[in-house]
Protein backbone atom coordinates (compact mmCIF):
# COMPACT_ATOMS: atom_id res chain seq x y z
CA UNK A 1 0.00 0.00 0.00
CA UNK A 2 2.90 2.33 0.75
CA UNK A 3 4.26 1.84 -2.80
CA UNK A 4 0.85 2.62 -4.31
CA UNK A 5 0.59 5.74 -2.19
CA UNK A 6 4.00 6.92 -3.38
CA UNK A 7 3.02 6.22 -7.00
CA UNK A 8 -0.16 8.25 -6.69
CA UNK A 9 1.80 11.06 -5.09
CA UNK A 10 4.26 11.03 -7.99
CA UNK A 11 1.45 11.09 -10.56
CA UNK A 12 -0.17 13.96 -8.69
CA UNK A 13 3.11 15.86 -8.75
CA UNK A 14 3.37 15.34 -12.52
CA UNK A 15 -0.16 16.66 -12.98
CA UNK A 16 0.64 19.77 -10.94
CA UNK A 17 3.86 20.36 -12.91
CA UNK A 18 2.00 20.05 -16.22
CA UNK A 19 -0.42 22.75 -15.10
CA UNK A 20 2.23 25.04 -13.63
CA UNK A 21 5.31 24.75 -15.87
CA UNK A 22 5.36 26.40 -19.30
CA UNK A 23 4.81 24.09 -22.28
CA UNK A 24 8.27 24.94 -23.66
CA UNK A 25 9.91 23.76 -20.44
CA UNK A 26 7.81 20.60 -20.39
CA UNK A 27 8.86 19.85 -23.95
CA UNK A 28 12.49 20.38 -23.01
CA UNK A 29 12.18 18.05 -20.02
CA UNK A 30 10.48 15.43 -22.19
CA UNK A 31 13.29 15.61 -24.75
CA UNK A 32 15.87 15.32 -21.98
CA UNK A 33 14.10 12.26 -20.60
CA UNK A 34 14.01 10.60 -24.05
CA UNK A 35 17.72 11.34 -24.51
CA UNK A 36 18.53 9.67 -21.19
CA UNK A 37 16.36 6.73 -22.15
CA UNK A 38 18.09 6.36 -25.53
CA UNK A 39 21.48 6.57 -23.85
CA UNK A 40 20.89 3.67 -21.50
CA UNK A 41 18.65 1.41 -23.62
CA UNK A 42 20.42 -1.48 -25.43
CA UNK A 43 18.19 -1.05 -28.50
CA UNK A 44 17.90 1.33 -31.45
CA UNK A 45 14.50 2.34 -32.79
CA UNK A 46 13.58 3.27 -36.38
CA UNK A 47 10.26 4.81 -37.39
CA UNK A 48 8.72 3.83 -40.76
CA UNK A 49 5.64 5.99 -41.52
CA UNK A 50 3.01 5.06 -44.08
CA UNK A 51 3.56 8.29 -46.03
CA UNK A 52 6.60 10.41 -46.74
CA UNK A 53 6.38 14.05 -45.65
CA UNK A 54 3.37 15.74 -44.11
CA UNK A 55 0.93 15.88 -47.03
CA UNK A 56 -0.01 12.21 -46.96
CA UNK A 57 0.35 11.86 -50.73
CA UNK A 58 3.71 10.20 -51.32
CA UNK A 59 3.37 6.57 -50.19
CA UNK A 60 6.35 5.13 -48.33
CA UNK A 61 7.16 1.93 -50.22
CA UNK A 62 9.09 0.56 -47.26
CA UNK A 63 5.94 0.63 -45.10
CA UNK A 64 4.15 -1.46 -47.74
CA UNK A 65 7.07 -3.89 -47.84
CA UNK A 66 6.99 -4.31 -44.06
CA UNK A 67 3.27 -5.08 -44.19
CA UNK A 68 3.81 -7.70 -46.88
CA UNK A 69 6.83 -9.16 -45.13
CA UNK A 70 5.04 -9.63 -41.82
CA UNK A 71 2.18 -11.27 -43.67
CA UNK A 72 4.60 -13.65 -45.41
CA UNK A 73 6.21 -14.86 -42.17
CA UNK A 74 2.81 -15.60 -40.58
CA UNK A 75 3.13 -13.58 -37.35
CA UNK A 76 0.48 -15.58 -35.48
CA UNK A 77 3.14 -17.39 -33.44
CA UNK A 78 4.72 -14.22 -32.02
CA UNK A 79 1.91 -11.64 -31.96
CA UNK A 80 -0.92 -11.72 -29.44
CA UNK A 81 -3.43 -9.86 -31.62
CA UNK A 82 -3.78 -9.94 -35.42
CA UNK A 83 -6.26 -8.55 -37.93
CA UNK A 84 -7.47 -11.21 -40.39
CA UNK A 85 -8.96 -10.34 -43.79
CA UNK A 86 -10.00 -12.20 -46.92
CA UNK A 87 -11.42 -10.73 -50.12
CA UNK A 88 -14.47 -12.35 -51.69
CA UNK A 89 -12.48 -13.23 -54.82
CA UNK A 90 -9.66 -15.01 -52.97
CA UNK A 91 -9.23 -18.03 -50.73
CA UNK A 92 -6.13 -16.62 -49.03
CA UNK A 93 -6.33 -15.19 -45.51
CA UNK A 94 -4.21 -12.08 -44.97
CA UNK A 95 -2.57 -11.30 -41.63
CA UNK A 96 -2.02 -7.77 -40.35
CA UNK A 97 -0.56 -6.71 -37.03
CA UNK A 98 -3.25 -5.14 -34.86
CA UNK A 99 -2.74 -1.50 -33.81
CA UNK A 100 -0.12 -0.99 -31.10
CA UNK A 101 0.94 -4.63 -31.02
CA UNK A 102 4.36 -6.16 -31.59
CA UNK A 103 5.70 -8.96 -33.80
CA UNK A 104 9.05 -10.61 -33.10
CA UNK A 105 11.48 -11.75 -35.78
CA UNK A 106 15.04 -13.11 -36.00
CA UNK A 107 17.79 -12.28 -38.50
CA UNK A 108 21.37 -13.58 -38.47
CA UNK A 109 20.83 -14.84 -34.94
CA UNK A 110 19.59 -11.49 -33.55
CA UNK A 111 16.16 -10.75 -32.10
CA UNK A 112 14.23 -8.03 -33.92
CA UNK A 113 10.75 -6.67 -33.32
CA UNK A 114 8.16 -4.63 -35.22
CA UNK A 115 5.49 -2.56 -33.49
CA UNK A 116 2.51 -1.30 -35.46
CA UNK A 117 1.33 2.16 -34.36
CA UNK A 118 -2.03 3.68 -35.33
CA UNK A 119 -2.94 7.18 -34.14
CA UNK A 120 -6.11 9.11 -34.89
CA UNK A 121 -5.39 12.60 -36.14
CA UNK A 122 -6.95 15.21 -33.87
CA UNK A 123 -10.22 16.73 -35.18
CA UNK A 124 -10.17 14.27 -38.07
CA UNK A 125 -11.25 10.74 -38.93
CA UNK A 126 -7.91 10.03 -40.58
CA UNK A 127 -5.40 7.66 -39.03
CA UNK A 128 -1.64 7.98 -38.93
CA UNK A 129 0.05 4.59 -39.29
CA UNK A 130 3.66 3.58 -38.84
CA UNK A 131 5.94 0.71 -37.90
CA UNK A 132 8.72 0.93 -35.32
CA UNK A 133 11.70 -1.34 -35.87
CA UNK A 134 13.71 -2.34 -32.77
CA UNK A 135 17.27 -3.59 -33.29
CA UNK A 136 20.15 -4.36 -30.90
CA UNK A 137 22.09 -1.10 -30.69
CA UNK A 138 25.50 -2.80 -30.74
CA UNK A 139 24.79 -4.47 -34.10
CA UNK A 140 22.58 -1.92 -35.84
CA UNK A 141 25.25 -0.87 -38.36
CA UNK A 142 25.73 -4.46 -39.49
CA UNK A 143 22.04 -5.41 -39.33
CA UNK A 144 19.97 -2.49 -40.60
CA UNK A 145 20.78 -2.43 -44.31
CA UNK A 146 20.95 -6.22 -44.87
CA UNK A 147 17.78 -6.78 -42.87
CA UNK A 148 15.78 -4.14 -44.77
CA UNK A 149 17.03 -5.61 -48.06
CA UNK A 150 15.85 -9.01 -46.83
CA UNK A 151 12.45 -7.55 -45.91
CA UNK A 152 11.98 -5.87 -49.31
CA UNK A 153 13.09 -8.95 -51.25
CA UNK A 154 10.80 -11.27 -49.30
CA UNK A 155 7.91 -8.80 -49.61
CA UNK A 156 8.24 -8.49 -53.39
CA UNK A 157 8.34 -12.26 -53.81
CA UNK A 158 5.30 -12.69 -51.54
CA UNK A 159 3.39 -10.01 -53.45
CA UNK A 160 4.23 -11.64 -56.77
CA UNK A 161 3.00 -15.05 -55.66
CA UNK A 162 -0.06 -14.12 -53.58
CA UNK A 163 -1.62 -11.14 -55.31
CA UNK A 164 -4.76 -11.67 -57.35
CA UNK A 165 -3.98 -11.70 -61.04
CA UNK A 166 -6.13 -9.69 -63.43
CA UNK A 167 -7.03 -9.94 -67.11
CA UNK A 168 -7.23 -6.50 -68.73
CA UNK A 169 -8.58 -5.31 -72.05
CA UNK A 170 -8.61 -1.80 -73.48
CA UNK A 171 -12.05 -0.17 -73.47
CA UNK A 172 -11.56 1.98 -76.56
CA UNK A 173 -12.32 5.27 -74.80
CA UNK A 174 -8.82 6.67 -75.24
CA UNK A 175 -8.75 7.94 -71.66
CA UNK A 176 -5.44 8.52 -69.94
CA UNK A 177 -7.02 7.56 -66.61
CA UNK A 178 -9.14 4.52 -67.39
CA UNK A 179 -7.94 2.97 -70.62
CA UNK A 180 -8.26 -0.58 -69.29
CA UNK A 181 -11.03 -2.64 -67.71
CA UNK A 182 -10.29 -5.89 -65.91
CA UNK A 183 -11.68 -9.09 -64.45
CA UNK A 184 -10.00 -11.68 -62.20
CA UNK A 185 -7.69 -13.96 -64.18
CA UNK A 186 -8.45 -17.58 -63.31
CA UNK A 187 -7.37 -19.53 -66.38
CA UNK A 188 -6.51 -23.13 -65.35
CA UNK A 189 -3.78 -23.70 -67.94
CA UNK A 190 -0.35 -24.61 -66.54
CA UNK A 191 2.83 -26.05 -68.02
CA UNK A 192 1.95 -29.31 -66.29
CA UNK A 193 -1.30 -29.65 -68.27
CA UNK A 194 -0.05 -28.04 -71.49
CA UNK A 195 0.27 -30.31 -74.54
CA UNK A 196 3.84 -29.42 -75.50
CA UNK A 197 6.90 -31.46 -76.32
CA UNK A 198 9.05 -31.81 -73.15
CA UNK A 199 12.10 -30.13 -74.66
CA UNK A 200 10.10 -27.11 -75.82
CA UNK A 201 8.38 -26.87 -72.43
CA UNK A 202 11.74 -26.95 -70.67
CA UNK A 203 13.19 -24.25 -72.94
CA UNK A 204 10.26 -21.91 -72.32
CA UNK A 205 10.15 -22.36 -68.53
CA UNK A 206 13.91 -21.89 -68.22
CA UNK A 207 13.73 -18.72 -70.31
CA UNK A 208 10.85 -17.35 -68.22
CA UNK A 209 12.64 -18.14 -64.97
CA UNK A 210 15.84 -16.45 -66.14
CA UNK A 211 13.82 -13.39 -67.18
CA UNK A 212 11.92 -13.11 -63.89
CA UNK A 213 15.17 -13.37 -61.90
CA UNK A 214 17.13 -11.08 -64.21
CA UNK A 215 16.55 -7.64 -62.70
CA UNK A 216 20.19 -7.02 -61.79
CA UNK A 217 21.41 -8.47 -65.08
CA UNK A 218 19.20 -6.24 -67.25
CA UNK A 219 20.18 -3.16 -65.26
CA UNK A 220 23.87 -4.05 -65.43
CA UNK A 221 23.91 -4.46 -69.22
CA UNK A 222 21.75 -1.37 -69.78
CA UNK A 223 18.72 -3.09 -71.32
CA UNK A 224 15.05 -2.57 -70.58
CA UNK A 225 13.72 -5.39 -68.41
CA UNK A 226 11.33 -6.84 -70.98
CA UNK A 227 11.05 -9.88 -73.24
CA UNK A 228 9.32 -10.49 -76.55
CA UNK A 229 7.62 -13.74 -77.61
CA UNK A 230 6.22 -14.60 -81.04
CA UNK A 231 3.83 -17.56 -80.97
CA UNK A 232 2.82 -18.89 -84.36
CA UNK A 233 0.97 -21.93 -85.62
CA UNK A 234 -2.41 -22.97 -87.04
CA UNK A 235 -5.66 -22.32 -85.17
CA UNK A 236 -6.04 -24.69 -82.24
CA UNK A 237 -2.32 -25.22 -81.72
CA UNK A 238 -2.44 -23.85 -78.16
CA UNK A 239 -1.20 -20.26 -78.43
CA UNK A 240 -3.74 -18.83 -75.97
CA UNK A 241 -3.25 -21.73 -73.56
CA UNK A 242 0.51 -21.15 -73.62
CA UNK A 243 0.02 -17.47 -72.77
CA UNK A 244 -2.21 -18.42 -69.83
CA UNK A 245 0.36 -20.98 -68.64
CA UNK A 246 3.09 -18.33 -68.83
CA UNK A 247 0.98 -15.93 -66.75
CA UNK A 248 0.24 -18.60 -64.13
CA UNK A 249 3.88 -19.70 -64.03
CA UNK A 250 5.16 -16.16 -63.41
CA UNK A 251 2.08 -14.88 -61.50
CA UNK A 252 1.77 -11.96 -63.95
CA UNK A 253 -1.26 -9.92 -64.99
CA UNK A 254 -2.38 -10.21 -68.62
CA UNK A 255 -3.19 -7.21 -70.85
CA UNK A 256 -5.10 -8.25 -73.98
CA UNK A 257 -4.52 -5.30 -76.31
CA UNK A 258 -7.12 -4.95 -79.07
CA UNK A 259 -5.43 -2.72 -81.64
CA UNK A 260 -8.62 -2.09 -83.62
CA UNK A 261 -9.93 -0.15 -80.58
CA UNK A 262 -6.85 2.09 -80.44
CA UNK A 263 -7.38 5.35 -82.29
CA UNK A 264 -3.76 6.41 -82.84
CA UNK A 265 -0.16 6.11 -81.66
CA UNK A 266 -0.74 8.58 -78.84
CA UNK A 267 -3.47 6.43 -77.32
CA UNK A 268 -1.24 3.37 -77.71
CA UNK A 269 1.44 5.09 -75.62
CA UNK A 270 -1.16 6.08 -73.02
CA UNK A 271 -2.28 2.46 -72.72
CA UNK A 272 1.31 1.32 -72.31
CA UNK A 273 1.88 3.81 -69.48
CA UNK A 274 -1.13 2.41 -67.61
CA UNK A 275 0.11 -1.19 -67.64
CA UNK A 276 1.69 -2.47 -64.44
CA UNK A 277 5.01 -4.15 -63.86
CA UNK A 278 5.00 -7.96 -63.82
CA UNK A 279 2.59 -8.23 -66.72
CA UNK A 280 2.19 -9.91 -70.11
CA UNK A 281 0.96 -7.65 -72.92
CA UNK A 282 -0.70 -9.71 -75.65
CA UNK A 283 -1.54 -8.71 -79.23
CA UNK A 284 -3.27 -11.64 -80.89
CA UNK A 285 -3.29 -12.16 -84.65
CA UNK A 286 -0.77 -9.38 -85.15
CA UNK A 287 -0.98 -9.75 -88.92
CA UNK A 288 -4.76 -9.23 -88.91
CA UNK A 289 -5.67 -6.88 -86.06
CA UNK A 290 -4.73 -3.63 -87.77
CA UNK A 291 -3.85 -2.48 -91.29
CA UNK A 292 -0.42 -1.03 -90.54
CA UNK A 293 0.38 1.87 -92.82
CA UNK A 294 3.90 0.61 -93.39
CA UNK A 295 3.04 -3.05 -93.94
CA UNK A 296 5.56 -3.29 -96.73
CA UNK A 297 5.54 -7.00 -97.26
CA UNK A 298 1.82 -7.47 -97.80
CA UNK A 299 1.00 -4.21 -99.54
CA UNK A 300 3.74 -4.30 -102.11
CA UNK A 301 1.74 -6.40 -104.56
CA UNK A 302 -1.87 -7.21 -105.31
CA UNK A 303 -0.97 -10.81 -104.47
CA UNK A 304 -0.02 -9.72 -100.97
CA UNK A 305 -3.29 -7.85 -100.55
CA UNK A 306 -5.24 -10.86 -101.76
CA UNK A 307 -3.40 -13.18 -99.36
CA UNK A 308 -4.16 -10.83 -96.48
CA UNK A 309 -7.87 -10.81 -97.31
CA UNK A 310 -7.89 -14.60 -97.47
CA UNK A 311 -6.03 -15.19 -94.19
CA UNK A 312 -7.51 -12.29 -92.21
CA UNK A 313 -11.22 -12.01 -93.11
CA UNK A 314 -13.09 -9.14 -91.49
CA UNK A 315 -16.41 -9.80 -89.73
CA UNK A 316 -19.45 -8.39 -91.51
CA UNK A 317 -19.87 -4.69 -90.87
CA UNK A 318 -16.48 -4.23 -89.19
CA UNK A 319 -14.36 -1.38 -90.46
CA UNK A 320 -10.64 -0.91 -90.13
CA UNK A 321 -10.86 2.06 -87.83
CA UNK A 322 -7.45 1.80 -86.17
CA UNK A 323 -4.85 4.39 -87.14
CA UNK A 324 -1.89 2.82 -85.38
CA UNK A 325 1.16 2.91 -87.64
CA UNK A 326 3.96 0.41 -87.91
CA UNK A 327 6.42 2.92 -86.46
CA UNK A 328 4.08 3.46 -83.49
CA UNK A 329 3.87 -0.26 -82.85
CA UNK A 330 7.65 -0.61 -83.15
CA UNK A 331 8.13 2.16 -80.60
CA UNK A 332 5.61 0.38 -78.39
CA UNK A 333 7.69 -2.82 -78.41
CA UNK A 334 11.24 -1.52 -78.05
CA UNK A 335 11.33 2.27 -78.33
CA UNK A 336 11.77 4.79 -75.54
CA UNK A 337 8.18 4.37 -74.37
CA UNK A 338 8.69 0.65 -73.88
CA UNK A 339 11.00 1.48 -70.95
CA UNK A 340 8.32 3.20 -68.85
CA UNK A 341 7.92 0.04 -66.76
CA UNK A 342 9.79 -3.11 -65.82
CA UNK A 343 9.36 -6.88 -65.89
CA UNK A 344 7.03 -6.98 -68.89
CA UNK A 345 6.64 -9.63 -71.56
CA UNK A 346 5.18 -8.66 -74.94
CA UNK A 347 3.56 -11.53 -76.86
CA UNK A 348 2.50 -11.47 -80.51
CA UNK A 349 0.49 -14.35 -81.96
CA UNK A 350 -0.23 -15.19 -85.58
CA UNK A 351 -1.54 -18.09 -87.62
CA UNK A 352 0.69 -17.10 -90.53
CA UNK A 353 4.21 -16.04 -89.62
CA UNK A 354 5.02 -15.17 -93.23
CA UNK A 355 2.40 -12.41 -93.16
CA UNK A 356 4.02 -10.51 -90.28
CA UNK A 357 6.25 -7.56 -91.18
CA UNK A 358 9.89 -8.61 -90.55
CA UNK A 359 10.51 -5.35 -88.66
CA UNK A 360 8.09 -6.48 -85.94
CA UNK A 361 9.77 -9.80 -85.22
CA UNK A 362 13.46 -9.11 -85.60
CA UNK A 363 15.91 -9.77 -82.74
CA UNK A 364 15.51 -7.27 -79.93
CA UNK A 365 11.75 -7.07 -80.39
CA UNK A 366 10.59 -10.68 -80.43
CA UNK A 367 13.40 -12.49 -78.62
CA UNK A 368 11.82 -15.95 -78.62
CA UNK A 369 9.94 -17.49 -81.55
CA UNK A 370 7.80 -20.50 -80.62
CA UNK A 371 6.38 -22.64 -83.42
CA UNK A 372 3.25 -24.44 -82.24
CA UNK A 373 1.62 -27.02 -84.45
CA UNK A 374 0.09 -30.45 -84.50
CA UNK A 375 0.41 -32.91 -81.64
CA UNK A 376 3.57 -34.92 -81.38
CA UNK A 377 3.39 -38.15 -79.44
CA UNK A 378 4.54 -36.58 -76.17
CA UNK A 379 1.87 -33.87 -76.47
CA UNK A 380 -0.78 -36.48 -77.26
CA UNK A 381 0.13 -38.52 -74.18
CA UNK A 382 -0.19 -35.39 -72.07
CA UNK A 383 -3.71 -34.81 -73.43
CA UNK A 384 -4.67 -38.46 -72.91
CA UNK A 385 -3.49 -38.23 -69.31
CA UNK A 386 -5.35 -34.94 -68.73
CA UNK A 387 -8.67 -35.99 -70.28
CA UNK A 388 -8.76 -39.78 -69.79
CA UNK A 389 -6.28 -40.41 -66.99
CA UNK A 390 -4.30 -42.73 -69.27
CA UNK A 391 -0.54 -43.07 -69.19
CA UNK A 392 -0.44 -46.05 -71.53
CA UNK A 393 -2.87 -47.90 -73.80
CA UNK A 394 -2.61 -50.45 -76.64
CA UNK A 395 -4.05 -47.86 -79.05
CA UNK A 396 -1.09 -45.53 -78.45
CA UNK A 397 0.91 -47.47 -81.06
CA UNK A 398 -1.73 -46.75 -83.71
CA UNK A 399 -1.72 -43.07 -82.73
CA UNK A 400 2.07 -42.94 -82.99
CA UNK A 401 1.92 -44.53 -86.43
CA UNK A 402 -0.58 -41.89 -87.60
CA UNK A 403 1.57 -39.08 -86.20
CA UNK A 404 4.62 -40.44 -87.98
CA UNK A 405 2.77 -40.66 -91.30
CA UNK A 406 1.72 -37.01 -91.15
CA UNK A 407 -1.84 -37.37 -89.93
CA UNK A 408 -1.47 -35.55 -86.62
CA UNK A 409 -4.18 -33.19 -85.37
CA UNK A 410 -3.86 -29.94 -83.46
CA UNK A 411 -4.17 -30.07 -79.65
CA UNK A 412 -7.60 -28.44 -79.88
CA UNK A 413 -8.86 -31.13 -82.28
CA UNK A 414 -7.52 -33.95 -80.12
CA UNK A 415 -8.84 -32.33 -76.96
CA UNK A 416 -12.34 -31.99 -78.41
CA UNK A 417 -12.47 -35.69 -79.32
CA UNK A 418 -11.20 -36.77 -75.91
CA UNK A 419 -13.60 -34.43 -74.11
CA UNK A 420 -16.57 -35.70 -76.09
CA UNK A 421 -15.70 -39.33 -75.27
CA UNK A 422 -14.13 -38.91 -71.85
CA UNK A 423 -16.38 -41.62 -70.40
CA UNK A 424 -15.08 -44.27 -72.82
CA UNK A 425 -11.31 -44.29 -73.34
CA UNK A 426 -11.34 -47.01 -76.03
CA UNK A 427 -13.91 -45.15 -78.10
CA UNK A 428 -12.05 -41.87 -77.67
CA UNK A 429 -8.76 -43.30 -78.91
CA UNK A 430 -10.42 -45.08 -81.85
CA UNK A 431 -12.01 -41.81 -82.91
CA UNK A 432 -8.66 -40.01 -82.62
CA UNK A 433 -7.00 -42.62 -84.85
CA UNK A 434 -9.85 -42.37 -87.36
CA UNK A 435 -9.56 -38.57 -87.48
CA UNK A 436 -5.78 -38.76 -87.90
CA UNK A 437 -6.07 -41.22 -90.77
CA UNK A 438 -8.63 -38.99 -92.43
CA UNK A 439 -6.27 -36.05 -91.98
CA UNK A 440 -3.46 -38.07 -93.55
CA UNK A 441 -5.63 -38.94 -96.56
CA UNK A 442 -6.43 -35.24 -97.03
CA UNK A 443 -2.80 -34.16 -97.16
CA UNK A 444 -1.83 -34.09 -93.51
CA UNK A 445 1.80 -34.85 -94.36
CA UNK A 446 2.18 -31.41 -95.95
CA UNK A 447 0.86 -29.71 -92.82
CA UNK A 448 3.23 -31.67 -90.61
CA UNK A 449 5.72 -28.80 -91.12
CA UNK A 450 4.11 -27.28 -88.02
CA UNK A 451 6.49 -28.81 -85.52
CA UNK A 452 6.64 -27.82 -81.87
CA UNK A 453 10.10 -26.32 -81.76
CA UNK A 454 11.83 -23.16 -80.68
CA UNK A 455 13.43 -21.06 -83.40
Topology:
Layout: H1 2-20, H2 23-40, E1 43-49, E2 51-52, E3 58-59, H3 61-72, E4 82-85, E5 94-97, E6 101-107, E7 110-120, E8 127-136, H4 140-162, E9 166-170, E10 180-184, H5 198-212, H6 215-221, E11 226-232, H7 239-250, E12 253-256, H8 265-274, E13 279-283, H9 296-299, H10 302-311, H11 326-334, E14 344-350, H12 358-361, E15 368-371, H13 377-388, H14 396-404, H15 411-420, H16 425-441, H17 444-447, E16 453-454
Parallel strand pairs: 9-12, 11-14, 11-15, 12-13, 13-14
Antiparallel strand pairs: 1-8, 2-3, 4-5, 6-7, 7-8, 9-10, 15-16
Commentary on this structure:
With about 450 residues, the chain is an alpha/beta fold. The protein folds into three domains: about 40-160, no CATH class; about 185-365, Rossmann fold, CATH 3.40.50.300; about 375-455, no CATH class. It is about 45% helix and about 20% strand. It is built from 17 helices and 16 strands. The protein has helices at about 1-20, 25-40, 60-70, 140-160, 200-210, 215-220, 240-250, 265-275, 295-300, 300-310, 325-335, 360, 375-390, 395-405, 410-420, 425-440, 445, and strands at about 45-50, 50, 60, 80-85, 95, 100-105, 110-120, 125-135, 165-170, 180-185, 225-230, 255, 280-285, 345-350, 370, 455. An eight-stranded mixed sheet has the order 10-9-12-13-14-11-15-16, covered by helices on one side. Helix 3 (about 60-70) packs across helix 4 (about 140-160), helix 14 packs parallel to helix 16 and helix 15 runs antiparallel to helix 16. The radius of gyration is 31 Å and the shape is elongated. The N and C termini lie far apart (about 85 Å). Residues about 295-305, about 315-320 and about 445-455 have low confidence and may be disordered.
Amino acid sequence: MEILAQMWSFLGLLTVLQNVLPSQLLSLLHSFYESLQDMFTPYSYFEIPEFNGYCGVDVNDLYRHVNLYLNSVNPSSTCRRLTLTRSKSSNLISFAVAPNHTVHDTFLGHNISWTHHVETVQDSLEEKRSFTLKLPKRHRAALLSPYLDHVSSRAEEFERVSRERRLFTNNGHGSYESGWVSVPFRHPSTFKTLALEPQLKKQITEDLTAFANGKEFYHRVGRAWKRGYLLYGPPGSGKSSLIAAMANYLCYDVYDLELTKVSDNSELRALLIQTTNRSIIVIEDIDCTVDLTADRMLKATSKGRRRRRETCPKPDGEEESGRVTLSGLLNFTDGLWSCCGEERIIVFTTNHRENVDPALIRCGRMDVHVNLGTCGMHAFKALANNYLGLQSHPMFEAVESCVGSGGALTPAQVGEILLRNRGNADLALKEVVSAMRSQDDNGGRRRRSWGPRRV
